[in-house]
Specification:
This protein has two domains: about 120 residues, HUPs (Rossmann fold, 3-Layer(aba) Sandwich), CATH 3.40.50; about 230 residues, Leucine-rich Repeat Variant, CATH 1.25.10. It is α/β, with parallel strands linked by helices and about 375 residues long. It is built from 19 helices and five strands. A five-stranded parallel sheet has the order 3-2-1-4-5, with helices on both faces. The longest helix has 23 residues. The relative contact order is 0.06. The radius of gyration is 26 Å and the shape is elongated. Strand 1, helix 1 and strand 2 form a beta-alpha-beta unit.
């Protein structure tokens, strides 16, 4: 049987920040056939708005996303105007959003005059953001727009509830972390914007910064600045689990931070221990056993947000496997003998959970 020729599809855009609207566009295109992407050049977009990433970076990000999520086979071409290659090459489909539908119609009008085959236009619907408006890289990349949006979502009742749970009241708006995570998914990684949001000192903007910052671009100096700025346990834990743990120097920071005097810097060291226990599936038992002397040493710190993090680290390490569970229980017993209210609480709380976990692991062995 003769193999049917694959349909050809063309898509064009700037793809500055790859958001859900772009993803829907790309998924549709790749579902139709072989895809050629027209990516706008730096000259083409220089007058659109400030802050658009350079062509090289946009192409790298787009290639990485497509290869990881959609396909290994595609072509990206630089385009210098809205027509790109579509007046010179034939395609079966052009996939567009409602925003670019008029351009697609204009393309076919030009092709008709050139006596070329018309391209079937496939229009996907707008993908709406949390505010009910169509997603736009322009809005997602704008610091001013995001700060204005966050302030408009301030909720006094939520804020009061957060404060009751120990969240710092300083510059806190009362926005759910789940909403911020969804917002970050729409925005995609944007390291420069993350740095600006962090410097705003707004509680929720800093959480958002942790979600959209790029761990590959975060420098050690930036990481040190951020950890010293942290003034609330939720920012500490979210930034450690969403950003810091993915950097190349995170494991070094565990040992450095765990002996620091600043409350939330020290908490960050133990938060990273707990996060590695959950996220780093390849780490050896030896790696985690190095944390036990530190946990024992710092168990006498009476500060609430430190002792809870020390306890968290001990419990999470002890839940990885039976070997570490046994050793974590032994460490907890040693800590229980220390003449310190904090140490006794850490040990008692950890032993209760670790012993239950041990029974479950033995049962499922």
């Amino acid at each position: 049987m003769k193999k049917l020729k694959q349909k050809t599809v063309v898509v064009g855009g700037t793809f500055d920040i790859i958001h859900r609207g772009h993803i829907a566009l790309l998924k549709k295109a790749f579902s139709l056939g072989d895809v050629v992407l027209g990516l706008t050049s730096d000259d083409y977009v220089k007058n659109k708005r400030k802050g658009i990433k350079k062509f090289v970076e946009r192409k790298k990000n787009l290639e990485g996303f497509i290869k990881n999520k959609l396909s290994k086979n595609f072509e990206i071409l630089k385009i210098e105007d809205k027509f790109g290659v579509v007046l010179k090459r034939d395609f079966d489909y052009i996939v567009v959003s409602p925003e670019s539908f008029k351009v697609a119609k204009e393309i076919n009008e030009r092709r008709k005059k050139l006596d070329r085959k018309l391209i079937e236009i496939v229009k996907i619907p707008f993908i709406l953001g949390k505010d009910g408006k169509p997603l736009s890289s322009r809005d997602l990349a704008s610091y001013e727009v995001i700060i204005k949006k966050l302030k408009s979502l301030a909720n006094k009742k939520n804020r009061e509830g957060m404060i009751r749970f120990g969240v710092s009241p300083k510059n806190t708006l009362g926005i759910s972390v789940y909403f911020l995570r969804d917002m970050a998914k729409e925005m995609g990684k944007n390291h420069d914007l993350a740095l600006k949001l962090w410097d705003s000192k707004i509680h929720e903007a800093r959480l958002l910064a942790g979600f959209i910052a790029d761990p590959e671009k975060l420098t050690e100096n930036q990481m040190e600045k951020w950890v010293k700025d942290i003034d609330s346990w939720d920012i500490c834990d979210q930034v450690c689990s969403s950003l810091f743990d993915k950097t190349t120097f995170a494991k070094k920071k565990v040992f450095e931070w765990a002996k620091r005097k600043e409350e939330f810097v020290k908490r960050s060291g133990f938060a990273l221990m707990a996060v590695f226990s959950v996220h780093d599936k390849k780490a050896s038992n030896d790696f985690f056993e190095k944390f036990f002397p530190i946990i024992k040493r710092e168990s006498m710190d009476e500060r609430n947000f430190v002792r809870k993090a020390v306890n968290w680290a001990l419990r999470q390490i002890g839940k990885r496997n039976l070997v570490l569970n046994k050793k974590a229980i032994e460490v907890a017993v040693d800590i229980s003998k220390i003449d310190s209210k904090s140490a006794r609480w850490i040990a008692s709380n950890a032993l209760s959970e670790l012993n239950i976990k041990r029974k479950l692991m033995l049962k499922n062995k």
